[in-house]
Amino acid sequence: MKAQREFHVGDTFRLERTCDRYRPIYYAAASGDFNPIHIDPEVARMGGLPGNILQGMCTMAWLADACGAYFDDPGRLRRLRARFSRPVLVNDVVTFEGRCVAVEGPVVRVEVSARNQKGEEVLKGASAEALVG
Amino acid sequence: MAIDRRHVGRRYGPYRYAVGEEKIADFAVAAAGGTPGRVFGAASRALAHPFHLDGEQARTSPHGSIIAPPMFAVAFAMQPFSDACADPALGLDLLHLVHGEQEFVWHGVIRPGDVMETVGEVAEAYSKGPLDFLVVKTTSTDQRGRVVVEGTWTAVIRG
User: Fold this and answer.
1) Which of A32, B1, B13, B42 has the fewest CB atoms in 10 Å of its CB?
2) Interface ipTM above 0.90
3) Ramachandran region, residue B31 (left: φ > 0; alpha: ψ -120 to 50; beta: rest)
4) Does position B42 have pLDDT exceeding 90, yes or no?
């Protein structure tokens, strides 16, 4: 496993995930979040959305996976935050690009951008903190 | 209708949740792009991080056993938030409600066999222009009484 001394400010990492047609349903099954706006396009359209949208918590799980891979152990994650600035729709491809912004002893902090295939931000202010020591 | 500040302090829970190995695997697989379950999805389990699946890598990891993906906390910690969103007393329009912002703080890892108890409380309720905001804070404690994860959940309701 990656040691504390191997984390440096300026390190970068990247992860791409696709919201295929079944992702909101699979995520609903795994998480228990069956809010109809995530699984029924008709209900979502009644709410003024273009179609059923991915659970924000799934986008955040992708964010956690991106950070966990950089931290070299998902169990090291201690803090994660994000604002959901734009819904993730079926067939969207989300690219997470992260950068290490601080290493303070065993605490490593990263900031992450998340954009869809059109370059639009789906998350704002996404950041994570890990304990690597 | 503007959200009413008098809901601040309203409490939900405690809710009990027993963490299971298969649920952990399903969550890790679904997030990683696979199909949860043991029926059509079994082959895609390999997409998940090995620390979340039964096997040599989980047993010999620094955690010494399977651990849940940190975001698995959603499976139990979201209940006070979803209950608040659907609470008739708050009267929120669920069709126009989206999850606006989220923060988690973890104090440790979650393992199969853990029994989590989650409580939540409405921390803020306010309007900004045509939007209403509801903020719920949750605390999830394990069977040993240790706080494992804290969540701050923000819903945005378009008026």
Assistant:
1) B1
2) yes
3) alpha
4) no
